[in-house]
From TrEMBL:
Name of the featured protein: YqaJ viral recombinase family protein
One Pfam family matching this protein: YqaJ
Organism: Dyella mobilis
Record-linked InterPro entries: NF-kappa-B_Signaling_Reg, PDDEXK-like_dom_sf, Restrct_endonuc-II-like, YqaJ_viral_recombinase
Secretion signal span: none
Domain YqaJ viral recombinase: 7-163
């Protein structure tokens, strides 16, 4: 399916998606550990930040209504979507790598987790493309590499697809030609992905608990 279509939005509804992995991982620092998974010593449940709690509410609403959450299209999102094809073409031209577009991909074992990579490469790679509307963000990436804020999404996509690496791409067509494209190979991080999987599992438990509470309350 093509991304950003109604079919694509329907496929994502009621699932944990890689684009929201930053919210899945939103636990208060130093306030405990993840709710599931083996840990040494005394354990204490980690309290969720508001972003994680809000995301649980979004998923519950999508499951109950059968409809995807309404997307508010900001100018920044429109800019990124409009420029993405040019970014992909520039990346292919510079690297000689062919990128195959894909729709929504569901984890092969865990049906409630999925992602939408910006492209698949051969049998073991993929891409995540960012086209920031603010040129300063692209400049920051040129100077310091992929921002840490994108780690949950990139590793989350690798978690879902099972692939070995992702080429992170930042592109700004307004820059001088030699500064328009940035790409960085991000390898699969098994330790981080294990924490990510743990956080997804605990979030889904909370989704199921919320659904059970609502259904029992209405009975």
């Amino acid at each position: 399916m093509e991304q950003n279509t109604q079919e694509w939005r329907d496929a994502r509804a009621g699932k944990i998606t890689a684009s929201r992995m930053c919210d899945v991982m939103a636990f208060t620092a130093g306030d405990g550990v993840y709710k599931s998974g083996p840990r040494k010593g005394q354990q204490k449940e980690a309290r969720s930040l508001k972003a994680r709690t809000d995301y649980i509410g979004d998923i519950v609403a999508e499951i109950l209504t059968g409809e995807p959450r309404e997307q508010i299209r900001a100018k920044t999102l429109d800019w990124g979507h409009d420029v993405e094809a040019a970014a992909r073409a520039a990346y292919e031209a510079e690297t000689g790598i062919i990128v195959v577009c894909t729709g929504f991909v569901t984890h092969p074992i865990i049906p409630y987790v999925g992602c939408s990579p910006d492209g698949l490469i051969a049998d073991c790679g993929q891409t995540q493309i960012k086209c920031p509307q603010n040129p300063a963000n692209h400049i920051e990436t040129l100077r310091n590499g992929m921002p840490e804020e994108h780690i949950p999404q990139v590793q989350g996509e690798l978690y879902v697809t099972g692939r070995d690496w992702s080429d992170f791409v930042s592109y700004d067509p307004r820059m001088p030609e030699h500064l328009r494209l940035y790409h960085q190979r991000i390898d699969r991080d098994e330790e981080y992905i294990a924490k990510l999987a743990d956080a997804c599992n605990s979030l889904w438990v909370e989704v199921m608990e919320a659904l059970k509470f609502l259904n029992e309350r209405a009975a």
